[in-house]
């Protein structure tokens, strides 16, 4: 079964607007990563946030992590048509204090940015 | 820096046939993953190697799927015999993560699109 669940499943916005995607997970984690997948291409890493961090920025990306709610959000500001893609969260599960480096992906959010 | 290389890019086979996929990770990356991504779904981890040892293969259908990573570098994933439900994209990824350390950024190959007819 998938560890992460993204919400919404699909998001459609206009260029220049902000896009927010959420990820909820079930078990304790070491870190959470966000990836982007363009049509017909492989996954590309966007950002990694560790369990002891609450917020992280990278360019137009802002990620938050709330371990008490077991949730994370990805905000893309001033979106562009080129941001059109599927976005996935992936969790590195904390198994009794140990990390096996196992990355478990959610089902993803399909983002469409209209020019 | 060269990325993760996978071959072939596309493969069409009939059910009950066998198929093999090859992956060459980024040089120096100790961790290698094989994922199966069915259309419209997120990637599902099939097997994870740390150097040439298996860390996790809990979701690998071992009656038909096998994988190896000889000498801790290249890896092959085999399906024998294939079923219609094996139609998917098979993604290979690698990361620098060392044994006992936290996961780091994973780099993905372009994947192999398998169609079983």
Mean pLDDT of chain A: 91
Number of strands of chain A: 11
Unreliable sequence segments of chain A: none
Find the structural class of chain A using helix and strand composition: mainly beta
Name the biggest interface: A-B, 27 and 29 residues
Number of helical stretches of at least 4 residues of chain B: 0
Which structural class best describes the helix and strand composition of chain B? mainly beta
Main beta sheet of chain A, described? 6 strands, mixed
Overall 3D shape of chain B: globular
For the sheet with most strands of chain B, the description reads: 7 strands, mixed
- Assembly state (oligomeric): heterodimer
Helicity of chain A, as a percent range: under 10%
In short:
Helix content of chain A is 0%, strand content 63%. Chain A is mainly beta.
Explain this structure.
Chain A has 115 residues and is mostly beta strands. Chain A has strands at residues 5-7, 10-14, 19-24, 29-37, 43-50, 55-58, 61-66, 71-76, 85-95, 98-105, 109-114. In chain A, the strands form two sheets. In chain A, strands 2, 4, 5, 9, 10 and 11 form a six-stranded mixed β-sheet that branches. A five-stranded antiparallel β-sheet of chain A has the order 1-3-8-7-6, with no helix packed on it. The termini of chain A are far apart. Chain B is mainly beta and 117 residues long. Chain B has strands spanning 5-7, 10-13, 19-24, 31-37, 44-50, 53-56, 65-68, 75-79, 88-95, 107-108, 112-116. In chain B, strands 2, 4, 5, 6, 9, 10 and 11 form a seven-stranded mixed β-sheet that branches. Chain B has a four-stranded antiparallel β-sheet with strand order 1-3-8-7, with no helix packed on it. In chain B, β7 (65-68) and β8 form a beta hairpin. Chain B is globular, with a radius of gyration of 14 Å. The N and C termini of chain B lie far apart (37 Å). The mean pLDDT of chain B is 93. Classes of the chains: A mainly beta (115), B mainly beta (117).
